[in-house]
Every structure is written in C-alpha cells, then in structure tokens.
Amino acid sequence: MSLALELGELAAEIAREAGALARQRRTEGVHLAATKSTLADIVTDADREVENLIRERLRTVRPDDGFLGEESDAEVGASGITWVVDPIDGTVNYAYGIPAYNVSIAAVRGTPLPDAWEALAGAVSAPVFDELFTAVQGEGAWLDGRRLQVTSETPAGALLATGFGYDPSTHDGDLALVRRVMPMARDLRRMGSAALDLAYVAAGRLDGYFERGLKPWDFAAGALLVTEAGGVVTRTDVESARPMLIAGGAEVHQRLTAIMENEQ
Ligand code: IPD
Fold it and tell me: I want to staple 248 with a disulfide (CB 3.0 to 4.6 A). Which of 71, 140, 171, 252 is the partner?
C-alpha cells in the first residue's frame, strides 16, 4: 500500500473517532474555554479535548511526524510528514448546537506552510450527519466509500458558499465581495464551517466556495477533497494577511477568479 493510502486510512480512522467524541461532548453540554482574537472566535473544552485525542493517536502510530493544530503549539517532525488538524471546524455552530461542524485532518508533505506543502491525504468527519469525506492524492475523493465529483455547473446556475473572518475590521471588504459575486450566481450560503464548505464542493452539493483569511487547518483536508474530486483550488495574495482561497468546478472557479482580480 502506498504511503498516501496508509495516511488516508489513518486520517479517516482518527477523524471518525474524534468526530464521535465531539458529538458525545456536545450532548453533555458545551463549556466555553476562552475567546481568542475576538468575541466570535471561541474555543470550547471539546476543541481542546478532541485535538489532544487526535494528537495522542498520531503520536502513538507515527511518532516522527509533525503536527499543526488549531488549538495547540506546532511540533516539527523528522519524517517530512505533518498533520494539519482542526479538531472542531465550525466551533461557533458547535457551541450553538448547529450541526454543521466537523473534524478536519490532513497529512501533508513539506513545510507546514500551505504554499510549500503537498497534501497527501485528508479526512473530514461530520458526525451529526454521520458522514465521512476522504481523499488521497492521486487516488480520488469519497463520501463514505462513494467516489466524489465536482459539478460542471455554469456560473449563472452556481450555488456558492463563503465565510467571514472573525476580525470585524475585515467585514466591509468581505461584504463588498459578496455584493460583486451575488449577481453572477444562483445563490450564496454562509454555513460557518470552511472544511464542510469544501467537502460539499467536492460532493457536488455546492458549485463553488471562496473565503479570505483561512488558516491551514481550515482548508488542508478540504482543498484536497476538491482537487481529488476534479475541481480547482487556488490561493492568491499569499503574502497578505488574508489570502483568498477559491474552489470549484473549472468554469465557476474561473469566473470567481476574474471577479476577485477586479476587486477594488
Ligand atoms: C472557522 C469556520 C468558518 C470560517 C472561519 C473559520 P473555526 O473555523 O471554518 O466557517 O468562516 O474563517 O475560522 O474557527 O470554527 O475552526
């Protein structure tokens, strides 16, 4: 079995277990552990517990790998593989009891800088929906074993999704972008969970997605899902504080890119 397939199996197994833990903790009640950059940027006890579980599982099986998680210090490994982990992506949804949250785990080769790595495997577990999205580089993307394919929708018929950063000073810019995109598309969603947005693009439930300022753990697994499902993912303005990620089928991706390039 290739390394990527092995990593994919491990990511899937751990994402499933971590998803079950997140869901279990949600039924027991949410404990807000802290707010981070702003009031909307929260972390719960469950975020930390789930990240610890993932970290411990990986440490046991692959002690030489690096780790980059949303809730703890990064660890550089000796193997050249780094695990990029969001223990609960969609934490605000989670805290409010909205089921659109997930556990996102990716194995990448290279430095944990998103533009210098290559993702080998990824898994996104959405436990409330009992869905597990997986992707392995060069092999494809699946939802519970069913192969995924992005849509070939035209921009005019596209259902899109986006997200907004936590910093209120960025909201005007994000909303201006929404105003430019809306006329081209069928409609737009803001689900509050970037990895799920990307998984849904891979699954053909959405035709495209864009968001500024995502962190590596928000998109590492989801971006691989989209490309392995035949879609296109790009990151631009990578030197800025808020790089733009665009994902979708070829035509929708191209149209979104053109709109962003003319951004004022
Ligand atoms: C957030 C969600 C949200 C997106 C934010 C992310 P978190 O991740 O994915 O949809 O708009 O940019 O930070 O904080 O819930 O892990």
Answer: 252
pTM above the 0.90 mark? yes
Residues 203 and 86 in one domain: no
User: Does 90 sit in the ligand 1 pocket, CB within 6 Å?
Assistant: yes
Same domain, 141 and 162: no
pLDDT tens by residue, 183-223: 999 999 999 999 999 999 999 999 999 999 999 999 999 99
Distance 210 CA to ligand 1 centre (A): 13
The tally of domains found in the chain comes to 2
Report the SS3 class of residue 248: strand
Name the residue type at position 163: G
**Residue to mutate (ligand 1; options 193, 196, 209; most atoms within 8 A of CB):** 193
pLDDT digits (tens, 9 = 90+) for 155-193: 999 999 999 988 888 999 999 999 999 999 999 999 999
Look-up of token digits 């495997």 = 121
Considering the domain architecture, whether residues 165 and 113 belong to the same structural domain is answered as no
